[in-house]
Design a protein that fits this description.
By secondary structure, the protein is an alpha/beta fold. It has 6 helices and 41 strands. Strands 7, 10, 13, 19, 21, 22, 23, 29, 33, 35, 37, 39 and 40 form a 13-stranded mixed β-sheet that branches. β25 (443-447) and β26 form a beta hairpin.
Length: 751
């Protein structure tokens, strides 16, 4: 039966109402879902922008770090004031292409400028703060601090300067309200300048040590290259050993010194761990994958000499066994480069018959050569000049060697550190009565087939007769004593006329004119002649002229707040007898004369193209007729740092050896059982350019017993005048900031 019409109408109305209600609810749900989706998308976009801006701010801070590093390595001083020429620069806008980073900046305006407007991208460096330990002017990297366990400078006194960098970056995208997301960060960088003489041994190239007798090395050791360690007996390091390359129990490839390899060398190579226990590199691997349980040479190649793939477990094993006291490239060790001096690179196959090694370090011993103000490389060259010993010399001696027809010419000046126009001439007594400079031209006579040297000396290693510029250290000491008296009370037979206490820097420099020099910048005419390559000598006579130090026993002359003495020269230097020590090792203030200083001892350094050690009674007259003469004096004691050069092993494929660090100071005599004691620091910074004859196992010398150590003066942070620094960098803090914190830090910079 059919329903009444009114009832059917009511039913249809209810259905329509349900549909309408359902549609409304569905529409609301869809609308809510769409709104949620849009909101979620906006939130995701904002989160993405926040991450992008944070990453951009961090990238800016790192970009600032790289600029600061470049400035420290090439400049002696600078300010990061954002309104100055040395301000930190942001990358060009093209750097941010493809990103949402707003690159708007106002790089030409300071915040104090009325026209300044806030920028979306900003990078500001703070003031440079000196950080010291106690009352010292240096900072001590405490090895007892667990944060320093793997610090390559632990245990050293260094110059530390901290600088903060703040950066902000804004990321914005179309359709995202709020004007973009801005992130703020602060990075703090520690720049450590380690004096070169903070190392017992520092090599700006590969370091080779392969002694026959037992050898102990006290003090830190670093090489900007590889370590080649293969003794016959025992080689022990008591402090940290680091290298930017790798460590090998083998000889340097091509070094044909004696035909032996790491496989046939059975001596131990011992390095002390954190507990002070010596652990041999020959032992059991504790971190190999899979583990190696048998004894092997735990060097960078698992004992495979200088070939084979690097041992993947070396880093972990070395860290566990030596607790940071043996670190290589596997641990991220970086090169230490002296300020304004480029990195060294050997040229194994020189072109054009010349050697184009990037031998930048040698510039530090070369004569003063200030550029003209119009020189396009004026700034770069001036920074190098500021690092030279020559331009910091209180006494600057210029020697033009004698010729067959003319006598030598010697002039003496004093250099003004900051203004070369204020250099002044000094007057010394005539050559015949000069108390501290003597020139002796190489001359000989021959009788009965025997050649006798009557002037200068003959070097059997170099097979050359040498003119000598002799510096009498006792005469120099007398001159420094007279300098401190009133001018009218000075003994004119001992004084250097014109030398005042305000002139004294503790550095005496000897220039032998006409020698080879180093190219400071790439040659503008021939770009293939790179910065660091050698400019040939203009006068070959310089290769036959050397400096010899005599009467050096006792304390070196010193005056003022920068104690000690540095003798520097672009020529080779010979040390005859004791230097800065009395020769009696029993008078040192401890149990080891190779490290323990005498009472009142002063820091000293000898800086030159090469360094040779002669006994007190080395006989010039028979130096040509007699090879390997007997060293007739007793033991020799030297307290000084050496900064010098060598000839790298297998130079130009010759197969010759550098002699290793144990032969860095050369010898010319048969020392028998006598001992040469040296307490100081040995730095090989460059290739020699005068003394280029390579080391060889020949008949011209028999080495002494070597008792060499790291001076406690240097370990305690007391260095000779003019000691160069090598820089390293450490990020010590990284912080995210709020906008308010950013403004507070920026204001604290006081720019």
């Amino acid at each position: 039966m059919s329903l009444p019409l009114p009832f059917r109408s009511r039913t249809r109305g209810s259905a329509i109402l349900v549909v309408i209600m359902f549609t409304t609810v569905l529409t609301l749900l869809i609308g809510s879902l769409l709104a949620w989706t849009v909101t979620e998308r906006r939130l995701n976009l904002r989160n993405a922008l926040r991450l992008e801006s944070r990453n951009a701010a961090e990238a800016l801070a790192e970009f600032g770090f790289s600029q600061i590093r470049q400035k420290f390595e090439t400049r002696s001083s600078f300010s990061l004031n954002p309104s100055g020429s040395d301000r930190l620069r942001v990358p060009p806008a093209s750097f941010w292409t493809g990103s949402n980073v707003n690159s708007a900046t106002s790089p030409t305006l300071d915040r104090s400028d009325a026209a300044y407007v806030p920028t979306a991208t900003e990078l500001i460096g703070g003031t440079i703060q000196n950080v010291v330990t106690g009352t010292s002017s240096l900072y001590y990297v405490d090895p007892a601090d667990e944060n320093n366990e793997f610090d390559p400078l632990k245990g050293k006194w260094v110059f530390r300067r901290d600088v903060s960098v703040i950066a902000k970056a804004t990321a914005a995208a179309t359709g995202v309200p709020g004007g973009g997301i801005t992130s703020y960060v602060m990075e703090k960088i520690s720049v450590r300048g380690a004096p070169l003489f903070a190392h017992a041994i520092f090599y700006n190239m590969d370091l080779e040590i392969f002694p026959g007798p037992t050898m102990n090395i006290t003090g830190p050791v670093h090489a900007n290259g590889n370590l080649y360690l293969f003794p016959d007996n025992s080689l022990t390091f008591t402090d940290q050993v680091t290298a930017t390359g790798h460590v090998y129990h083998a000889g340097k490839p091509g070094d044909g010194a004696d035909g032996l390899t790491g496989a046939t060398r059975t001596g131990s190579v011992n390095i002390k761990n954190r507990a002070g226990t010596s652990v041999n590199i020959y032992g059991t691997n504790t971190a190999g994958t899979p583990a190696i349980t048998s004894n092997v040479w735990m060097d960078s190649t698992k004992g495979n000499g200088t070939s084979g793939s690097l041992w993947g477990g070396f880093r972990a094993n070395a860290s566990q066994v030596w607790n940071g006291n043996l670190q290589t490239a596997a641990h991220g060790i970086q090169s230490y480069t002296p300020v304004a001096i480029g990195s060294y690179k050997e040229d194994p196959t020189p072109s054009n018959g010349s050697d184009d090694s990037l031998n930048s370090g040698r510039a530090i011993i070369e004569p003063s050569n200030y550029p003209a103000a119009t020189d396009p490389s004026y700034t770069t060259k001036m920074e190098v000049e500021a690092q030279k010993y020559a331009n910091n010399a209180g006494i600057y001696i210029t020697v033009t060697p004698a010729t067959a027809t003319s006598a030598e010419v010697i002039t003496v000046t004093s250099k003004n550190r900051s203004d070369p126009t204020k250099n002044k001439s000094l007057t010394v007594p005539s050559p015949a009565s000069n108390p501290f400079i003597k020139y002796s031209k190489y001359t000989t006579t021959t009788s009965g087939g025997t050649t006798t040297v009557t002037g200068g000396m003959y070097d059997q290693h170099r097979s050359k007769g040498l003119d000598l510029v002799e510096l009498d250290i006792q005469g120099l000491k007398n001159a420094v004593t007279e300098m401190q008296k009133a001018s009218g009370a000075r003994d004119t037979t001992k004084a250097i006329n014109g030398l005042e206490t305000t002139d004294w820097t503790g550095i005496v420099y000897v220039e032998v004119t006409g020698g080879p020099t180093t190219r400071i910048v790439d040659d503008p005419v021939t770009p293939s002649l790179k910065a660091g390559s050698t400019i040939a000598a203009t006068d070959s006579r310089n290769t036959f002229t050397a400096v010899r130090l005599i009467n050096g026993g006792g304390k070196v002359p010193s005056y003022g707040t920068d104690p000690g003495l540095t003798i520097a020269s672009n020529a080779p230097v010979y040390i005859k007898g004791n230097f800065n020590a009395d020769g009696n090792v029993s008078t040192s203030g401890g149990v080891n004369p190779a490290t323990d200083i005498e009472t009142g001892e002063l820091p000293a350094a000898i800086v030159s193209d090469a360094i040779s050690i002669l006994s007190e009674n080395f006989n010039d007259a028979t130096s040509r007729s007699t090879a390997n003469p007997t060293a007739t004096t007793t033991n020799i004691e030297i307290s000084a740092a050496f900064l010098t050069g060598n000839v790298p092993s297998n130079k130009n494929g010759t197969g010759r050896t550098s002699g290793g660090a144990h032969n860095l100071p050369r010898f010319l005599e048969n020392w028998g059982s006598k001992t040469v004691w040296i307490r100081g620091s040995m730095v090989c910074l460059f290739e020699s350019r005068i003394f280029t004859e390579p080391h060889g196992i020949t008949s011209y010398y028999s080495p002494p017993n070597r008792n060499w150590g790291f001076s406690k003066l240097f370990r305690a942070g007391t260095y000779p005048p003019g000691t160069p620094r090598v820089l390293s960098y450490r990020r010590i803090d990284f912080t995210d900031l709020t906008a308010a914190q950013y403004e507070t830090v920026r204001t604290s910079f006081s720019w």
